[in-house]
UniProtKB/TrEMBL annotation:
Residues 24-275 form the EAL domain. It comes from Bosea massiliensis. The lineage of its organism: Bacteria, Pseudomonadati, Pseudomonadota, Alphaproteobacteria, Hyphomicrobiales. The chain holds residues 485 to 773 of 777 of the full protein. This is Bifunctional diguanylate cyclase/phosphodiesterase. It comes from the Bacteria.
């Protein structure tokens, strides 16, 4: 039908689809330039032990310092990078920077790096992780690889073999955003995971109903039984922290209440400050926001 109108394929698309395609093409070109001229930076968000109030690790969160658009968040470009085949290249940059910057932190603090499902299912992810550790000299035990459920779906045998090879390198593996997507409790026992990060929709995302809380406690206890470290993401208020503390099964917390993502230059002071007082004291001393 499109052909017969004499306007090629354009009729299959409305103008907004053409706009979207054009915008993506621009982002793709910009992403290549960003890789070539080092426009990617990492911010780090602390993850804090519930018991001791200490920072145990910091999650690397990618920021793109775009020459015209300013700081661009990953939500705006990771999906496009995946589609245009640039995500593994970006992933290697992130691994390298994160491991390098973490060598300047105290040894007790690990670094967590998000790895895209596409990069994870490619053929070089284990080599990429090993190379970053090698180049930077970071102890493998100080690297946590964060994966989402989508990385583990589809091909169980491939996922298991990649996870096993990563574990054998000595890095730890966290399952991110747990409870969203097609969560399967069987992941928890069939894969060599170390940590579960319960998605913030259960913590501060408006799913704090009694049923969701029951589910959250149940999942957290099950994970603990299986020997996994349980992290709650997205803690924004003292009330939420309190609820999590009373559940008893949450090992670590992360969220704006504790600290926002920030440049590596801020971490030394922050790590020291959290080491000096209990979690409640840390939270009480935070400026009201
Ligand atoms: P994520 O891995 O689940 O990271 C947590 C996200 O929640 C971060 O957003 C963080 O800034 C935000 N967050 C932390 N605490 C709170 C809170 O208390 N409340 C709320 N509302 N949000 C909070 P960000 O930095 O925009 O990253 C979004 C997502 O982009 C990440 O979700 C991750 O999936 C992806 N991402 C970030 N960096 C990378 C990367 O280097 N590589 C890949 N492949 N993906 C990345
Ligand atoms: Mg993450
Ligand atoms: Mg997460
Ligand atoms: Mg999340």
């Amino acid at each position: 039908a499109a052909k017969s109108s004499g306007r090629g394929c354009a009729q299959f698309y409305d103008s907004s689809m053409i706009e979207v395609a054009r915008a993506r093409r621009i982002v793709e070109i910009d992403l290549r330039e960003a890789l070539a001229s080092d426009q990617f930076e990492l911010f780090y968000q602390p993850i804090v032990a519930m018991q001791t109030g200490r920072i145990t690790s910091c999650e690397a969160l990618l920021r793109w310092r775009h020459p015209e658009r300013g700081i661009v968040s990953p939500g705006e470009f990771i999906g496009i990078a995946e589609e245009v085949g640039l995500i593994a290249q970006i992933g290697r940059v992130v691994l390298d920077k994160a491991c390098r910057e973490a060598t300047h932190w105290p040894d007790s603090v690990s670094v967590a790096v998000n790895i895209s499902a596409i990069h994870f299912r490619g053929d070089a992810v284990v080599e990429d992780v090993a190379a970053a550790l090698e180049r930077t000299g970071l102890a493998p035990s100080r690297l946590v690889v964060e994966l989402t459920e989508s990385a583990l779906m589809q091909d169980d045998a491939l996922a298991l073999s990649t996870l096993t090879r990563l574990r054998d390198l000595g890095v730890r593996i966290a399952l991110d955003d747990f409870g969203t997507g097609y969560s399967s409790l069987s992941y928890l026992q069939s894969f060599p995971l170390h940590k579960i990060k319960i998605d913030r929709s259960f913590v501060s995302g408006g799913r704090e109903t009694r049923k969701d809380q029951t589910l959250l406690v149940g999942i957290a206890r099950l994970c603990k039984e299986l020997g996994l470290t349980v992290v709650a993401e997205g803690v924004e208020t003292v009330g939420q922290l309190d609820t999590l503390a009373r559940m008893g099964a949450i090992d670590e917390v992360q969220g704006y209440l504790l600290a926002r993502p920030q440049p590596t230059s801020q971490l030394r002071d922050l790590i020291a400050a959290f080491a000096q007082r209990s979690l409640t004291a840390s939270v009480e001393r935070l400026p009201v926001r």
